[in-house]
Specification:
Blueprint (H helix, E strand, L loop, with lengths): L1 H19 L1 H19 L2 H11 L3 H6 L1 H7 L11 H46 L15 H14 L2 H16 L12 H26 L1
């Protein structure tokens, strides 16, 4: 009887944890499912999937919404590490901002980071400083979403959330080398820097609007 009572008390607590961090749980689960699907595909199908999901200049002119969404769910390296990095960043952000503000901030990081980095590619291709083939670069992964969430933790989190954000960003910088090639205006580092700054700006605006209500 006591075990039934304890289970009855635990169920609402677990439900509350899920609801409070629903955005983090859903995104983490989506990336994990995408990773499993990616691994199970034969190599030719993996390549075709990434070409379709990529936020390349070509795809952004043909199916922009689908590529912006799909690309955020398909890491192509360090597959075991991304769920950990996502959990550190997203659960920290939702603990500070809740769900909808986290979603808005991370979506802004993904969209603005992509448009700025690929916009530079489009301009350089049109100017002749990059080959036309660069319009079809494979640009996928959850990193823009993650760095936008890290920005929330860094600026607005308590000591525990801020510590997790610092650890996450340090791993991405020193192990993932997310800013390598920034001086050459390569796609990934430009996108990461833009997503980080976007997360800081959008997160600060949302935090200000919340505190002034």
């Amino acid at each position: 009887m006591e075990s039934v009572i304890r289970a009855g008390k635990a169920a609402p607590a677990l439900r509350a944890i899920f609801v409070r961090h629903a955005a983090a749980w859903i995104y983490l689960g989506g990336v994990c499912l995408a990773e499993v699907a990616y691994v199970l595909l034969p190599p030719p199908d993996r390549a075709a999937l990434l070409r379709w999901a990529s936020t390349s200049v070509h795809n952004l002119t043909h199916h922009p919404v689908a590529s912006l969404i799909a690309s955020a769910f398909f890491p192509t390296s360090y597959l075991w590490a991304w769920p950990i990095l996502i959990a550190l960043a997203l659960f920290g952000a939702t603990s500070v901002f809740g769900n909808w503000r986290t979603v808005v901030t991370c979506a802004a990081g993904q969209v603005v980071g992509t448009l700025v980095s690929e916009g530079i590619v489009a301009y350089r291709v049109s100017a002749g400083s990059l080959p036309a083939a660069d319009r079809f670069l494979v640009d996928v992964g959850p990193s823009y979403v993650v760095v936008a969430a890290i920005a929330v933790g860094l600026l607005h989190g308590g000591w525990l959330v801020r510590g997790a954000a610092v650890l996450d960003l340090a791993l991405l910088i020193f192990v993932g080398q997310i800013f390598a090639g920034l001086s050459g205006l390569e796609v990934a580092p430009v996108g990461h820097l833009t997503a980080l700054v976007t997360g800081m700006i959008v997160g600060t605006v949302l935090a200000w609007r919340y505190t002034t209500k």
